[in-house]
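Hello again,

I reread your note about wanting to compare the complex against the isolated chains. To keep things tidy I'm splitting this into two emails, and this first one only covers the full assembly. Below are the input lines as submitted, including protein chains and any nucleic acid or small-molecule components. They are followed by the predicted structure of everything together. The single-chain runs will come separately.
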Amino acid sequence: MSLDAITLSVIQAALQQTCDEMDLTFSRAAFSPVIAEANDRSDGIYSAEDGSLIAQGSQGLPVFVGVMQYSTRTIIEMIRDGRCAAPEEGDIYIVNDPYLGGTHLMDVRFAMPVWRGGKIFCWLSNTGHWPDIGGSVPGGFSASATAVEQEGLRLPPVKLFKKKMLDQEIYSIICSNIRVADQRIGDIRAQAAALYVGQDRLFAILDRYGDETVVESIAELRRRAAEQMRAYIAPIPDGTYRSKAFVDSDGVVDQPLTIALAIEKNGDTLTFDFEGSSPPCIGPMNSVLATTLSSVYLAMRHIFPDVPISAGAFEPLEVKRPEGTFLDARYPRPVSGCAAEVSQRIAEAVFAAMVQAVPEKVTAAPAGSSGNFALGGSDPVRGRDYVMYQISGGGYGGNLSHDGLSNGCSTIGISKSPPVEIMEQAYPVLYRHYALREGSGGAGEHRGGFGLAYEVELLRGEARASFVMDHGRVGPQGARGGSDGAVNSVTVYRGGEAHVPPHLSKEQDIPLKAGDRVQVGTPGGGGYGDPFRRDPELVLRDVRLGYYTAKQAAAMFGVAVVADTIDREATQELRETPAA
Amino acid sequence: MVENYSSNAGSVVAGIDVGGTFTDLLMIDGRSGGRVHIAKTPTTVHNQAFGVVSALADTGFPIPEIDLIVHGTTTTTNAVLERRLARTGMITTRGFRDVIELGRRTRPQAYGMTGVFVPVIPRDLRLEVSERVEASGAVRIPLDEAEMREAVRRLIEAGCESLVIHFLHAYANPEHEKRAAEIARESWPNGYITTGHALLSEAREFERGVTAAVNASVQPILERYVERLRTELEARGYGRDFLIMNGNGGMISARFVTRESAKTVMSGPASGVIAAAYTGKRAGYENLVTYDMGGTSTDVALIQNAEPAVSNETEIEYAMPIHVPMVAVHTVGAGGGSIARVDASGLIQVGPESAGANPGPICYGRGGTEPTITDANLVLGRLDPKKLLAVENPVTVEHVRAIFADKIGRATGLDGVAAAGAVLRLGNMKMAGAIRMVSVARGHDPRDFALFAFGGAGPLHATALARELGLPKVLVPARPGITNALGCVVADLRHDFVNTVNQPVASVDEARIAEILERHREEGAALIAKEAVKPESIRVTHSADMQFVGQTHILNVPLPSAQVDRATLQSLFEKAYFARFKVELPEIRANLVNLNTSVTGVRPAVDLSRLIDPAGRAATLEGALRETRPVWYDGAWHDTPVYAREKLPLDAEIEGPAILEQMDATTVLEPGDKARSDADGNIVIEVGKL
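Full-complex prediction:
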């Protein structure tokens, strides 16, 4: 037995670097800005037997943590059952079916077996978010879809590349069903190029250390990743930690969806039980099982960032299948909102429960929305149609030692938002302001970060505005006595009249004319700890910087700021008055 | 009065680089056949000028007789990183004062929902005025001059020393910013006024705004520093102009440097890369991966055809972009101080935690208790254990070895030596992986490159890293510890220009391309003509940033001349794209994003052949042998000859295992490596097979 601590560490690093290099290649060669700029993609290595995750790129989009092992497993099972054509060397399968271990339809997966000595050694797989996949609205986020067919083209696992050659027939079927098809060949080539890079690196590792050593190491690394996660869990006091989080609505029926979570800590395992969550919904805010699982995993990785992303690390996390709830949707439930919004509410529920268990490692709730605002219209000056996406950040939750960040990225993302100047170059719009949203950070000993406030005016032509956001009804929750952050707000001014979407954070196809305006305020982060324990000097600083008014300082933090100084006596009085 | 000065091969040039701990000086005396003076003095943190003049004094060379002083300073870098900045106000378009605080919705790391960010200019010093320019450059709302005057008055009253004027779309139409600056000048007590478009005429308000804000807030600090240094130098009889290194690897007169102060941030790492390019070219190696290993981090850069890669998109820390052309130096968070530990799964991990400079590795004797990469080198005999006597509170090798046995060995079943060996191997592997991601993973064939190792710790790891990376050769310069100072000595005068075009190649106007590139050349030549130092010749290079229509990432493509036609652009890009990604996309058209020009005033060649005094060379290799000591390679001790680097005979050939020691660096040859020393005192190592 050649396995020792050195070999294991070295092979762990080599596999990790292989995935990182696949991520890099995919992003740099991609056309879709969602992949190239927003890094809405991920690459990994999966076992030949059951598709379980061996290693995944560290710069992949967090929402894809662990998720490709489910689609890879499905492909392997379908091949075994003869429901899918058997692989040959040089074949790459394409799949985006959400119910076969996926997310939403826009996330298109490639999976390629890696052959060694005539046998499949492992699978390489990657996911990229395509800018369009057909369906009723450009971009795929239909806030009012009621069946998956309205959301776009659904592909079961089929071979897009056969013996290294692109299958022109399947390619042409895809191109005939999606918008802006002419650039997709660039993304397809990029996605395949990343897999080839991964294969080259993997062969180099196998040649250097020997196939047998690598196989044994992979098994041992899996065992040890589980051990590492168990070691983090073990010190948590045994017990059940409960939380709730709410999705504003499903976009069709105006009522909140509840995520109820009970995390039971027992010995060195955590059991996640979503019993009591809402049943499947009519609109597109359903989650498929694979996405629900990956949402739990990504939240846990935010809490314990140094656990490797591998099947072993997930072993001590038992997620009970949430059958009968909107977190385990089956065909034909619409699912476009699962990756962008529902996943973040699941993560929020995990944070809210875990902050009770490990208060030093978890923050109060972050804004937790991708803040999708889409504007589709026709520009009379340029004579062409456009679809503009404005994604935006929000405040992060405070934590044991610091205030939350302002305008942070969504919990599940790592992408930057577009500059105002680039948006105005590309689309007939004008931003009237793009500013820190004052007062939005939830009060706490460490307050939440601030959301974003912006207002966009349509300059010419007609357009339709759509929103898929969240936290319009209840703000991101505070923790350990901290207050909630400000709720998301959307107001559309049409012909001078204010219109607030009935579902607050979601609406589709609001018609706009030139001069109409859209005003958005994104959520602030939740506060952490009792706001009355916040250092008055910090409250004064926040007032000086215009983050809060003096009135808010008194009401939210119990600090009296008068003429740019702290009134100590009044402050003491405010802080000693019991809350009404 | 600035004296005109024509540098030539027969002059005395001093390069002085201020680092975190030491101020390094390298002076080459062309009047006496390239005689070399070297000095190393402690950096004087609060006024770097004292360290500079004491380094000059240490050489014993009469300061008034120095022809030219070229200086690399970290004054501005430190000011930004430590936020010791001049009080600076900002005036923006109404509705946009928060742009530099909001950033682009990011967090510092992919996992972990925490982070801290402090904007360069606090919110209460950021004011707004009515004005608005559209993306096309058309004025939508005229500048409200009364509001502008009022905002300026308020900022003066608030005690601001520096001012930024940052308006939306000023890159498309700078008239409002120019007029606002005129108004500000009426009452602003000094000249510290930066307009957003002046440094960076490109869209993207956050990046342009931060670049301008950094510029303004370090301007007074740099100016004061330059003045202090000038005074100190004059007091010692040096009345000439001196030059300061910029981040683009070129230097500029101290008289002009403060106008674009932001360009000096990151100039330290750039000068090392310039020295590498120069040294490599003389040695016959024009394609290099440079690698400067320090205590907490390692700087990596790529040089092709003796030209360092330049990037317009440097971020000096989280959410702090400085978008001016700078030598593309990637910082990897691993160095000699990286700490090794065994994680909860029983695997050895190296970094990202670092012992830094304080307490530093255990062997520094400053109270460090965690095993680091430097400590592993000591336990394995790669670093000279006798040197430990030189530290403040000496520790023994046995002590360090016992810590490895305890903290690494116990959980992994290794003894102290094997544990140190594991830490070194893993540390090298992680570092190689990080280097690969920023260099050869970007479409380059490693076999075309040599690894240029410098900094105190670089040469210790160079052959192991080259082997991991698949680079066939390693080049260790004569004086690895003062490479940045050498960069100051050999740097040219240089100006870089960028113009955004953003049009499909099929529809670009060829005449306009030529016109833009020609204008760049003229502007650059005019700037160089103003310098007191007259270059030997002017070199102009052009390049284009291109992409396929629909892409967002760009690829830089060198252009043969300013006169390029559309077909040439398309085919140059397709070739470069295939080389990078092995992908051909004949069905998609190319887009021309930016046109770039760099104008270089080439200074006379500097002779490096006396960096190590040829008179000290021994007649035979044996004559350079210092001792033989056991060194651990790949699982076993080997009796290893240790040579004095300065005494190696010309063209000496050395087979590994061997160790080459010199005052400021140790080079390790592993079994299978073959080294040769050349006329400039470089060691060129042929790396043995994996």
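For quick reference: The longest strand of chain B covers residues 590-602.

B.
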